[in-house]
Fold this sequence. Notes:
By secondary structure, this protein is of the alpha+beta class. The chain has 3 domains: about 5-130, Butyryl-Coa Dehydrogenase, subunit A, domain 1 (Orthogonal Bundle); about 135-240, Butyryl-CoA Dehydrogenase, subunit A, domain 2 (Beta Barrel); about 245-390, Butyryl-CoA Dehydrogenase, subunit A, domain 3. The protein is built from 10 helices and 11 strands. The strands form 4 sheets. The protein has a 4-stranded antiparallel β-sheet, with helices on one face. A 3-stranded mixed β-sheet has the order 3-6-7, covered by helices on one side. The protein is globular and about 80 Å long.
Amino acid sequence: MDTLAQAQGTDFYLVDEMLTDDELSVRDRVRAFADKEVVPHAAGWWERAEFPNELLPAYAALGVAGGSIHGHGCPGLGAVADGLVVAELARGDGSVATFHGVHSGLAMRCVDVLGSADQKERWLPAMARAEQLGAFALTEPTHGSDVVRLETRAERDGDGYLLHGEKRWIGLGSIADIVVVWARDDNGDVGGFVVEHGPDGPDATPGYTSRVITGKTSNRALWQADVRLDGVRVPTDNRLTEARSFADTSRMLAISRQGVAWEAFGHAVAAYEYAVGYARTREQFGAPIAARQLIQDKLSRMLADITGMQLLCLRLAQLQDGGKASLARASLAKLHTAAAARRVCAEARDILGGNGILLEHHVARHHADMEAVYTYEGTDTVQSLIVGREITGLSAFA
């Protein structure tokens, strides 16, 4: 086992002193899981572009699926503990963290926030046990940053709806059991429609076809799919009760964007800690490279970025628990952490020299996976425009 890739507990501003015993307990449980179950195998999953199905029982046993959801078998974590879970999973591997973000942070939270009591009890318990996986189908082939213009339609048909359209970049879209599809109804209103997706074969959902996107250079072990909906029938009680407009979709994005900020922080910590350990042991010109001024300057600036991310994520989580984490505040966190983590991972790769592009040294994987984090849940430009609108009161979206 590569000890350099194990958690080193970076905490320069002693943030642990601000955490409760329960938050520390959850963090430490997930940290141990990442070190034991994820880190030793992540490079293989990544290189083979193989979704780690064998990890699901251990993930379910962690008891973190559903995050801050109360009841229905979910843990009811606070936003801080929920964020720490994401950060530790990302420190282990980006694909595993993104899987958790899709299943727990998007699909399950969507059912919890926008579903009726009956809908929550119908779907959440099995999802909390990871017996059923969830997906969130919003992005379309021609609508990413401007997804507000989504074209997928939900046509009323007797006691149900027929879904027509295409979705792209849908995490777990090929294997999820519960797929929340966002579509416009006959009145033009946006809603979330739950497709109970059957596996390939005789039980496949009629009209639902998916194709795993291949050739990715980021998050390779998280299967994302192109999904086609050709008259997929869903009953009326599969429309999430509180999903009435795109504003409801935005509520979900504000929540998930916070998780992405924690994810970026986790990637940065992983790359930084590995770089520190490597620099201490790698000798050039008769001394460890950690003794060189250039390396110490890089590490100091990386730590400054990490500490800033850590404090920003912590405060945003506190605001979330207080009901004050607005879309603009979540966007500012994602804007800052994604850019800062990208810098940290690039510097770590540089410190490792040629070894920095080898999967066996882990930094290469985090460096590549940060490219996905930098883009999904809203690009850098989209986040800046959301924050700019908040600052000025004027929209600069075209």
